Structures are given as C-alpha cells and as structure tokens.
Amino acid sequence: MDLNFGSASQICDMVAIARYLNVTLVVPELDKTSFWADPSEFQDIFDLNHFITSLRGEVRILKQLPPRLKRRVERGVVYSMPPISWSDISYYHKQILPLIQKYKIVHLNKTDARLANNGLPSEIQKLRCRVNFSALRFTPQIEELGRRVIRILRQNGPFLVLHLRYEMDMLAFSGCTQGCNEEEVEELTRMRYAYPWWKEKVINSDLKRKDGFCPLTPEETAITLKALDIDSNIQIYIAAGEIYGGARRMESMAAAFPNLVRKETLLGPSDLGFFQNHSSQMAALDYLVSLESDIFVPTYDGNMAKVVEGHRRYLGFKKTILLDRKLIVDLVDQYNSGSLSWDEFSSSVKEAHESRMGNPTRRVVIPDRPKEEDYFYANPEECLQQPDDPLSII
C-alpha cells in the first residue's frame, strides 16, 4: 500500500476494507517517490504498537508478512493492482476478495480516493473515523514536540494556523504562477515536465486561478485576512514548507501581521535536527499545532487541509475559515483595479464567509460525480456530535 502523510485517510480506508472483507492487513508502506523523497517509514510517523493494539478487536494487522509469504513477494510472485477510485464496499467484496482468495496476497499499489464518500454502511463510516481519530496516533517524539510548540504559542496568547500551501511542489504541480517572475515560471515549468506522474503539462495559470483552482498567494492571503478583520497582532503560525519566493513573497503578510512564527523560529536546531529531510514528520508536527489553533485557515484544499478540517469538526466544530478562492481572487482583482473600495471589498469577503467557518453542515452528495462531493474526511458527519446531540455517535 503506497501513501503519503497528506493521505493518512488512505490508511483508514484500507483498515475499513480489511475489516469488511475479514482479511489481514500488513502495515502500510509509505510513498517514497514523491517530490520530497521522504524516507520515513510508517513507524517513524505513527505509533505502530498503538495502531495495532487499538484495532485488535476490528482487524488483524501484521508488522510484516510471514517468512513463507515474504519469500513469495521477494520472488515477485504477488498480485499488484490499483483499486477503482471512489468504489463502494461491494466492489471490494465482489472484485478484490476473490483475488485475495486466489493469490493469498494482493498488493494495492494505489489507495488514494479508492473508497466512496457516501452510500456506505454506518459501521464502515464509523470505523474510518475510529482509525483516523484514535488509532492513528503520532509517535511519542512527535506528540511531545507538538505539545511543546503549542505551549510556547499559548504563553503568548491566541494563535491562528495558516496552512499556506505556496510551496515549490504545489506550484509546479498546479501550474499556478501568480506573482512569480519569468525565471520562477520557467523553473516551475521545468519541474512539472520532469515528473512523469504529473500528467497535466500545459497549464494556463490565469484561467486556473480565476476558476479557483490555485492556492492563494501570500499577498492574496494577507489582504483576505485583513478583510476578515483578523487581529493584526495575533500570532500566525505558518504550517508549510519553504514558501516559494522566500521573504520577498512574504513581505505583505509580514507587514500586515508582524507576529509570524514557524516551528523553526519557535524551536532550536537541536529540536528539529531529527526531523530534517523528513517532510512527513515535519507535516505531522504542523498537523498537531493546526488541530489546537484558535483559528485554522488553509489556502488550498489539499489532503492535509481537508483532514485537519474534519478533525477540528470532530473536536467540536473549532473555527476553520474555508476560503472561497474563486470569489476571493475576483474580489482581489476588483479591489486592486480600483473597482471596489476597501469597505466594499471587506464587506463582500465577510459576507461570503459567514457560513464557511467549519460550522455543522450536511455533506454534499452528488451521485455519479464523487470528485465533486464533499470529501468524507473533511466532514465525517456520521461520526460527529451535533450541537443539540447529548452524546457522540461514535
């Protein structure tokens, strides 16, 4: 099973599938072929023993294959396949289970978005949540460092976590180059062509941005936070890797919100030394801080942002500002061109986001168009305690 940290939900899906099929699950392998080439294993990020023992009553999980089966894999005698995307559980019963019975081992080589958002038995949905919110715990080292960062932030008052997904890999993958100079555009384009699994090559950045498919730039984000009347003195923790363009691109953000912090500014080199070149472990630290923030603001709805959104709903619908990127870039362009005054711009941004604060809402179901549905892990409503419910349904 290949996956990355941003798709930890894939682990939850595979546990649910293994439980439904009554088959043994081998501890997942993590993707080591991504842009960041992170060598981390499952047990470097997650508490492996807790994962196995907490699910003992649900599914049998092995740390590795028994010797006889391991030798078969080493000889290449293994059936490997990608399951069909957005499949309901009957697909796994009718198509995958017979293959397991025939070959004894089936390697699912892609697990992203392979289980449907909707139309599944409630016990499957609740198990997905139980794995995500209970069984998947980070290693003690990551958990302790996360608690330390949160303590430091809390000592200085409330804090907002900004998941500023304006990093080199995201921009190269998406083809979004707003605010980049010619040299940077060329660099990002070369990178996109260098990775064969990034299928889309020729991309119109302007059109993609206008359609809301680009992560907001640091400049667009800064003006949006100001329009939402976010306190200029609040601590803003940047949950991200290196921002593309560096300090030059962060100038407007730093001017508007001078209390910008990162894990690298809150912790010493000795604290983070162990995590260097392990982007998944660094992301795990950001995830923990994101969960505890007073406000969480993602600038792009990638895997981590969606799972944090859902986890914060699970923790009591904590304030999560879900930015309407398509509307924002249109309003920003109107404001920058002088078509809107500041008051008009700010009023429009506030009005558009009144109902986009992570509050309770029904998950959108669109039959036959699963990609356009709300993602299960962003709003796992079957598992949430609604404000008027006396007890959680998990």
Outline of the structure:
This protein has helices at 9-21, 42-45, 48-54, 67-74, 89-103, 122-135, 140-155, 168-174, 182-194, 205-210, 218-227, 246-256, 263-266, 269-272, 279-292, 303-314, 325-337, 342-352, and strands spanning 25-26, 61-62, 79-81, 106-108, 159-163, 235-238, 260-261, 295-298. With 394 residues, the chain is of the alpha/beta class. Strand 6 (235-238), helix 12 (246-256) and strand 7 (260-261) form a beta-alpha-beta unit.
Provide a descriptive summary of the structure in words:
This protein has 394 residues and is α/β, with parallel strands linked by helices. The chain contains 18 helices and eight strands. It has helices at residues 9-21, 42-45, 48-54, 67-74, 89-103, 122-135, 140-155, 168-174, 182-194, 205-210, 218-227, 246-256, 263-266, 269-272, 279-292, 303-314, 325-337, 342-352; strands at residues 25-26, 61-62, 79-81, 106-108, 159-163, 235-238, 260-261, 295-298. Strand 6, helix 12 (246-256) and strand 7 form a beta-alpha-beta unit. Helix 7 (140-155) packs across helix 15 (279-292) and helix 15 runs parallel beside helix 16 (303-314). Residues 1-6 and 390-394 have low confidence and may be disordered.
